[in-house]
Design a protein that fits this description.
The complex is a heterotrimer of chains A (506), B (356) and C (379). Chain A is built from 17 helices and 24 strands. Chain A is an alpha/beta fold and 506 residues long. In chain A, strands 6-9-10-3-11-12 form a 6-stranded mixed β-sheet, with helices on both faces. Chain A has a 6-stranded mixed β-sheet with strand order 18-21-22-15-23-24, sandwiched between helices. Chain A has a 4-stranded antiparallel β-sheet with strand order 2-1-4-5, covered by helices on one side. Chain A is globular and about 70 Å long. In chain A, 48% of the residues are buried. Chain B has one domain: ABC transporter involved in vitamin B12 uptake, BtuC (Orthogonal Bundle), CATH 1.10.3470. In chain B, strands 1-2 form a two-stranded antiparallel sheet. In chain B, α3 crosses α9 and α6 packs across α7. The radius of gyration of chain B is 21 Å and the shape is globular. By secondary structure, chain C is mainly alpha-helical. In chain C, α5 packs antiparallel against α6 and α5 packs parallel to α7. Classes of the chains: A alpha/beta (506), B mainly alpha (356), C mainly alpha (379). Chains B and C meet through α5, α10 and α13 of B and α7, α12 and α14 of C.
């Protein structure tokens, strides 16, 4: 391995944000034609490093070398000129533009002052054929399924002659089969001389696809290994810095009476399209029903419909033998619902409020927190102190605004609030998204604890591993319907993956 | 532009014109009334059109601008001031003074817009508050200077309102103006004509040029634009200032084309009605222009009814009252905002300051 | 032991905490006013005046004597109510630019009750009945004028900025019609568009002999406390503030967002209507066309200067009232036109809104979060 093989190198990169050292003297190199995986848990500093390489951030210290020469990468224009392209975790696409418009943005071809959409279209089609990435230049991006949008993002980089491709958590939005297809495309690209940096936190795919693996933790590089030299357990402990128990400890489930019954639920999404097309299932006391599926198949709308945040077109929802179809959140909460929402900062918390106030967000109007219309501050304070201790929320005081808490602790506030009430059903939507391993372990423990206490748990998650680890039964959602329901013991990744992709009803 | 909206516009204008026609036919030829209404509509819709275009450029780039009223007011005053200054102190001929006035108005609009841009983009002040600041400042400054310069002895103009150099002359559009009967519509003043031309130009720029694509990108998903190397702050600044120029031209209408004098608060809500036109037109130039025409028609309605007030039949006497009739544009605006004419979709990142 | 931060954050020793917080929060507004006065001084100098004499006259007229204080307080009463109206709406995430129209309608209704009711009923009414009646119906009018844009926003998503402004023009037209027509003061020789004077029984009595300061001012202070209590000590206030901070989370938590929006705008309109009522029952004893003009924007400036907190609003209202009151004296003494006050007030608002500018000039670090209202036009 000579040095002329190294196409991209980062030396001693350091980046500070207020209150956090995101990258601490990071060294990283990429060889020509390799797939180099950058592995680490949420918050390890991987995306920061890539954003620096791509020119969205500027490093405080350190240098970047391309093909051996030191370069300045101050803006994305610089990195694009150097042949670096990036596909972000959250797509950088404009939904109301066409595919062609999105691809040409920033590098527009014009003819006599006017945008030359035709020329762009032709070039896109050529690239599409060349690399096996099916895209339709005239389609509106907002109407494309997620996998297609990702292909558009990749074509966008190839349109600019990228030789170095950075992919940030690309498989987060794909079924296992689609992920395999992506790996095939990646191999095709590397055979043509493109070098790829692949960021992920999923251990399984790392070993399958990488030539080398660099693990980051808390802003530092822990080490670089090849797949042959390591295994999942070793990688996990490199990621976290201690022994990680990869399996969740849980006993057998003892499901009892029916808590939730959903019958033939139909609902419309924000674009006016049918997103729930007749969903039916039940959840029993003392079991975890996991809803698996790629994001965008109706899970968000299902959670919203069950918790009163979205109106339904038809169908019935029964909670503890009370019909709660179409009701607003308050009566449903009063019937015994707890909801850990998908977007904790948007729905779950009022960031400017103190921890104490957020802890009574759902029941501030009930005794002991209120007598008639008057708030009882002492009761709120006592409650806050108790819950902070019980749920181990790391905060300097109950009166700190929750915006100052880490993601994991913010989620703990929500969990503390929801689980400390007298509840019968817990709806948990993507409960561990964006959290560090410690917080993920904690929340998984809480979910199992709830189950064991006799509460019915509906777990909606795009992380297949999480579904398989926690659920007693697994249902798969595809295009607004439940296409399969199996006991967890009978579920395999392959079967679930096929159902998630809508094929092979077995 | 969908049919529902189009038919509502056509319907409202038809109703307004019909009422005037029914009342006024006792006095004038019906065709004359209609053409006169249409000509007036186009003229009075001018500031609304320009205000709406101003709003479109700002908001398509992602900056909410409710300071259009203040920009117009400031532009109306300073443009008028410049024209009078040139005419009185430098003794320029009237037409030239007026042209200088128009340029002054445009630049004033741009200056106010620059302030709004600095507040909204660099200091990330809440954009509605920032727009309100612009409005308040404009009212204060124009009121103060109006008093100082024209009503205090010892000022440059000697304490009197000097004779203004009139208004911009009407231009006759060749060929079209010769069409029998309807030709009257094609005789308009320059700002009014510019407004229509600018609608066409704006549409072209927004949807068929590189500038327009980038502007819209920055208003829909600024982060995406940033990642392909577009300078979000620059695009927003530039478009807000362009919006300022357009609002400035709209302000010029009031004091240099409509009536040759300035009155405090003479814009009278037109800047805000422009915003309603912009929303109703779904942030597109032609749509906003159609909405502006509806409001223009309601004003033409008001003007013509005043003309015919003595032939209004007894049971419709309330129409004689200018206060009642004057409510039409405002009530119309509120009705339109209720969305009975369908959903409107603003640019996705409208009003959200961009943080890297 | 408790760390320093914990001591600051605990609810023990509230007085000390209050003083410290007050000091910190008032710093930027104070500097904003100072800077605006400096810039205003430059403007005064540019038109040939002497800023020092001008400000001396201003201060004399505002706070220089017992009479001055009385006048300032009298002018402050409607400002306090209008400022509270806008501040309450801000806390609920709403922008009420309609204070002007709500005020005018409140004033007109109160005036009508004040001068027309005894004649209509044929009897004279005791103050204890007449005054509350005028107040009650006046604030009802204001509340209605606030409820309409509130309902439009809640049910159609129509943005309250434009709707309240339209309601202002509609109210103005209605009031013009009334004041030039059926409600016009028909006493001989009068050409001004105004109502007749209201009966004695509908007026707020002065507190001290010889000064105009009346009990309406005390009412304003009481209402400020009530608003504070409402916002921070009641469930309704919690709902209003939650909807204002994060309507999505409010909905998720079970709060009826639509109902809260309507209530917020109604209460806001009610307070603005009260401002108009106070004008009629305590200040001028009639309503004159044009009184309400400018109140809307002044109320916004007062609310922002007072950082949307009732205590701040009271202080800011007194400042604005002082400037208005002192401006006439300033003009009398130095011939500087009173319009320069509106320029200064505009500058105050500019510096308060863009407090980052003030922080930059005076090198202060940012502490709290920004006030954010703009969520686009919805729809």
């Amino acid at each position: 391995m000579t040095d002329d093989n190294i196409v991209l190198q980062a030396k001693g990169i350091t980046k500070r944000f207020p209150g956090v050292l995101a990258n601490d003297k990071v060294d990283f190199d990429l060889k020509k034609g390799e797939i180099h995986v950058l592995l680490g848990e949420n918050g390890a500093g991987k995306t920061t490093l890539m954003n620096i390489l791509y020119g969205l951030y500027n490093q405080d210290e350190g240098e970047i070398l391309v093909n051996g020469k030191a370069v300045k990468v101050d803006t994305p224009n610089d990195s694009i000129a150097l042949g670096i392209g990036m596909v972000h975790q959250h797509f950088m696409l404009i939904p109301v533009f066409t595919v062609a418009e999105n691809i040409m943005l920033g590098d527009e071809t014009t003819k006599r002052g006017m945008l030359d959409r035709q020329a762009v279209s032709t070039r896109v089609k050529d690239l599409s054929h060349q690399h096996g990435l099916a895209v339709n230049p005239e389609a509106l991006v907002g109407q494309l399924p997620v996998g297609a949008q990702q292909r558009v993002e990749i074509v966008k980089t190839l349109y600019r002659n990228a030789q170095i491709l950075i992919l940030d958590e690309p498989t987060a939005v794909l079924t296992p089969q689609e992920a395999d297809e992506l790996f095939v495309i990646m191999r095709g690209l590397t055979e043509r001389g493109v070098s790829i940096i692949f960021i992920t936190h999923k251990l399984k795919e790392v070993l399958a696809v990488s030539d080398r693996i660099t693990v980051m933790r808390a802003g530092r590089v822990v080490g670089t290994v090849t797949p042959k030299q390591t295994n999942q357990a070793k990688l996990a402990s490199m990621m976290v810095g201690r022994e990680v128990i990869l399996k969740v400890q849980k006993g057998k489930a003892k499901p009892k009476e029916q808590i939730l019954n959903v019958e033939n639920l139909h609902a419309i999404d924000n674009r006016g399209l049918e997103s729930l097309r007749g969903v039916s299932f039940e959840v029993r006391a003392g079991e975890v029903l996991g809803i698996a599926g790629v994001q965008g198949n109706g899970q968000t709308e299902l959670a919203e419909a069950l918790t009163g945040l979205r109106s339904t077109k038809s169908g019935q929802v029964t909670l503890m033998s009370t019909d709660v179809t179409g009701k607003t959140p308050r009566p449903i909460i009063e019937t015994g619902l707890a909801h850990i929402p998908e977007d904790r900062q948007k729905h779950g918390l009022v960031l400017s409020y103190t921890v104490a106030d957020n802890l009574v967000l759902c029941n501030y109007y009930l005794p002991p927190f209120a007598r008639g219309m008057v708030l009882q501050q002492e009761a709120v304070d006592t409650n806050a102190r108790r819950l902070i201790e019980e749920y181990d929320v790391r905060t300097p005081s109950p009166y700190v605004p929750t915006s100052k808490l880490s993601g994991g602790n913010q989620q703990k506030v929500i969990v503390a609030r929801e689980l400390s009430r007298d509840i019968k059903l817990l709806v948990a939507s993507q409960p561990t998204r964006g959290l560090d391993v410690g917080s993920i372990e904690y929340i998984h423990k809480q979910i199992i604890a709830m189950r064991d206490r006799g509460i019915g748990v509906l777990l909606i998650s795009a992380e297949l591993d999480e579904i398989m680890a926690l659920s007693d039964r697994i249902a798969v959602m595809y295009r607004g319907k439940i296409v399969a329901t199996v006991p967890a013991s009978e579920a395999t990744r392959e079967k679930l993956g096929l159902w998630m992709a809508g094929s092979g009803i077995d | 532009m969908d049919w529902r909206r189009f038919s509502v516009i056509a319907l409202v204008i038809a109703i307004l014109f019909t009422v005037v026609l029914l009342i006024g036919q006792a006095r004038d030829e019906p065709l004359v009334i209609i053409t006169s209404l249409m000509a007036t509509t186009i003229a009075v819709a001018t500031p609304l059109t320009l205000g709406a275009l101003s709003g479109i450029f700002c908001e398509r780039a992602g900056v909410v601008n409710i300071g259009i009223e203040g920009m117009m007011l400031g532009a109306a005053f300073f443009g008028w001031l410049a024209a009078i200054y040139m005419n009185t102190i430098f003794e320029m001929p009237p037409l030239l003074s007026l042209i200088v006035g128009v340029i002054g108005a445009i630049l004033t609009g741009g200056l106010f817009a620059l302030l709004h841009a600095v507040l909204s983009i660099t200091y990330k002040v809440d954009q509605i508050i920032g727009g309100t600041v612009i409005n308040i400042l404009a009212i204060g400054i124009t009121g103060f200077l109006n008093r100082q310069l024209f009503f205090e002895s010892g000022s440059i103009f000697g304490g009197n309102v000097p004779h203004a150099p009139g208004v911009l002359p009407r231009i006759q559009i060749p060929f079209l103006v010769n069409i029998p009967v309807v030709g009257r519509i094609f005789e308009q003043q320059p700002v009014a004509i510019s407004a229509i031309l600018l609608v066409i130009i704006s549409h072209y720029v927004l949807f068929h040029t590189r500038w327009g694509l980038r502007t819209r990108a920055v208003g829909e998903h600024p982060k995406a634009a940033d990642t392909v190397g577009i300078n979000v702050a620059f695009m927003r600044y530039a478009n807000v200032v362009i919006g300022g120029f357009l609002a400035g031209l709209g302000g010029a209408y009031f004091t240099l084309e409509s009536v040759p004098s300035f009155e405090p608060l003479l814009t009278n809500g037109r800047g805000f009605i422009s915003l309603a036109a912009m929303i109703f037109g779904n942030w597109s130039p032609f749509g906003a222009w159609a909405a502006a025409l509806v409001f223009g028609a309601s004003q033409a309605f008001q003007i013509k009814l005043q003309l015919f007030r003595d032939v209004i039949p007894a049971q419709w006497a309330f129409l004689q009252n200018s206060y009642i009739v004057g409510l039409t544009p405002y009530i119309l605006t509120m009705l339109i905002l209720t969305g009975i004419v369908g959903k409107t979709i603003p640019p996705a990142a409208d009003g959200v300051p961009y943080e890297k | 032991m408790q760390s320093n931060e914990e001591q600051n954050n605990s609810r023990e020793n509230p007085v000390k905490k209050l003083l410290k917080t007050a000091g910190n929060t008032m710093l930027v507004p104070f500097l904003a006013v100072l800077t605006a006065l400096i810039v205003g001084g430059v403007v005064i100098a540019m038109v040939g005046g002497n800023p020092f004499y001008a400000y001396l006259g201003l201060f004399q007229g505002a706070f220089g004597s017992a009479k001055a204080w009385s006048e300032t307080a009298v002018w402050a009463s409607p400002y306090i109510f209008a400022g509270l109206a806008v501040a309450l709406a801000f806390k609920g995430g709403l922008f009420n630019i309609g204070a002007e129209g709500q005020l005018a309608l409140g004033a007109v209704v109160a005036a009508w009750i004040g001068y027309a009711l005894p004649d209509m009923l044929g009897v004279s009414l005791p103050t204890i009945v007449h005054l509350p009646l005028a107040i009650g119906l006046g604030i009802l009018a204001g509340a209605l004028w606030g409820a309409i844009p509130g309902a439009l926003k809640a049910y159609t998503g129509g943005h309250e900025v434009i709707n309240t402004i339209m309601m202002n023009y509609i109210a103005l037209n209605m009031v013009s019609f009334l004041l030039n027509g059926p409600m016009k003061d028909k006493s001989p020789g009068n050409v001004i568009a105004r109502t007749p004077e209201i009966a004695e029984s509908a007026r707020f009595t002065p507190i001290f002999e010889g000064f105009r300061l009346h009990w309406g001012f005390v009412l304003a202070l009481i209402v400020a406390v009530v608003v504070w209590w409402l916002l921070w000590k009641t469930t309704l206030g919690f709902e209003i503030r939650t909807v204002g901070s994060n309507p999505d989370a409010a909905k998720y938590a079970g709060i009826n967002v639509k109902r809260t929006i309507i209530l917020t705008m109604t209460l806001s309109g009610l307070l603005a209507g009260l401002a108009g009522v106070i004008e009629v029952t305590g200040l001028n004893y009639r309503h004159e066309l044009g009184f309400s003009v400018g109140y809307g924007f002044d109320a916004i400036a007062i609310a922002l200067l007072g950082k949307t907190h009732p205590l701040g609003v009271v202080l800011a209202a007194i400042l604005f009232a002082g400037m208005r009151n002192g401006g006439t004296r300033m003009q009398f003494l130095t011939q500087i036109p009173v319009d320069v006050i509106s320029v200064i007030q505009g500058l105050i608002l500019l510096f308060v809104a863009a407090d980052a500018i003030i922080r930059y000039i005076y090198r202060i670090r940012a502490r709290e979060e920004r006030l954010v209202l703009t969520r686009g036009w919805g729809g």
